[in-house]
């Protein structure tokens, strides 16, 4: 697995290009969907609605997770390196 990660890191520009091509393919495939029986007006009239909706939902989830992590849920990076003594030994 480490070799795969190193291989992809060495070819980062190609990986980014492939990701954009896949993203464009997914977005283009949404144009082929029949919207005649859509449930809402937005689904029927806004192209790439579900692509935008999915991206927005993921961005909100990531933002909330980062906010929660920074507000105290996430331990500091050096949590285990701060002190080697236990609370009983400090007295």
Chain-averaged pLDDT: 86
What Rg do the Cα atoms give?
A: 23 Å
Give the ordered list of helices and strands.
HHHH
User: Total helix count?
Assistant: 4
What structural category arises from helix and sheet content? mainly alpha
- Helix content range: 55-70%
> What can be said about the biggest beta sheet?
none
Strand content is under 5%
Could you give the count of β-strands?
0
Low-confidence stretches: none
- The shape is flat
Fold and architecture overview:
The protein is mostly helical and 91 residues long. It has a domain at 48-91. The chain is built from four helices and no strands. It has helices at 2-10, 12-29, 41-45, 49-73. The protein is flat, with a radius of gyration of 23 Å. The mean pLDDT is 86.
Q: Any chance you could write out the topology, listing elements then pairs?
A:
Layout: H1 2-10, H2 12-29, H3 41-45, H4 49-73
What descriptive keywords fit this protein?
91 residues, mainly alpha, 4 helices, 63% helix, flat
Task: Give a quick rundown of the structure.
With 91 residues, this protein is an all-alpha fold.
């Amino acid at each position: 697995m480490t070799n795969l990660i190193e291989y992809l890191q060495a070819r980062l520009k190609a990986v980014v290009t492939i990701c954009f091509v896949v993203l464009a393919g997914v977005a283009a495939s949404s144009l082929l969907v029949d919207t005649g029986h859509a449930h809402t007006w937005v689904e029927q009239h806004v192209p790439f609605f579900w692509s935008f909706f999915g991206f927005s939902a993921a961005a909100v989830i990531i933002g909330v997770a980062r906010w929660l992590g920074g507000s105290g849920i996430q331990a500091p990076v050096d949590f285990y390196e701060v002190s080697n003594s236990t609370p009983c030994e400090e007295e």
